[in-house]
Amino acid sequence: MSDFWWGVIAVMVYIPFLFLWGFTLVEIFRRKDMKAWSKLLWALFALFVPLVGVILYFVVVPRDYDDVQVTNPQGYDPLPPLPVTYTQAMDDMAALSHMHDEGKLSDPEYENYRQRLLAA
């Protein structure tokens, strides 16, 4: 095989790996379930040993990290749910009115949802 075809094969492998490497680094820093030191160690491992670091990261780290609930050691959630603000309620009322005007909500459904919003 000529040098041209070896170059094409190298590019076809190298460019996807660069994208995978970049997405891995972005994902490491966007995770919410890992502490800062864990993120730093994974990022350094992926930077200095790229092929092994990326493959090992995707094999070792669990994928369902969005379902992990981060709580403090006492067991209660440190952040209570935010109350509905006035602007959110007004936006919801406007959306309800719009849906009622288009006929997507019947009169009883509209009143039911409106009463729920006013109670919150």
Fraction in helix: 55-70%
Number of helices: 5
- Rg estimate, integer Å: 25 Å
Query: Quick check: average pLDDT?
Result: 81
Describe the structure in your own words:
The protein has 120 residues and is mainly alpha-helical. The protein folds into two domains: 3-67, no CATH class; 86-119. It has helices spanning 3-30, 36-48, 50-60, 86-102, 107-119. Helix 1 (3-30) packs across helix 3 (50-60), helix 2 (36-48) packs across helix 3 (50-60) and helix 4 packs antiparallel against helix 5. The N and C termini lie far apart (72 Å).
Q: How are the SSEs placed, and which strands pair?
A:
Blueprint: H1 3-30, H2 36-48, H3 50-60, H4 86-102, H5 107-119
Helix pairs in contact: 1-2, 1-3, 2-3, 4-5
Question: Which short descriptors sum up this protein?
Answer:
120 residues; 0% strand; single chain; mainly alpha
Summary, kept brief:
The chain is mainly alpha-helical. Helices cover about 70% and strands about 0% of the residues.
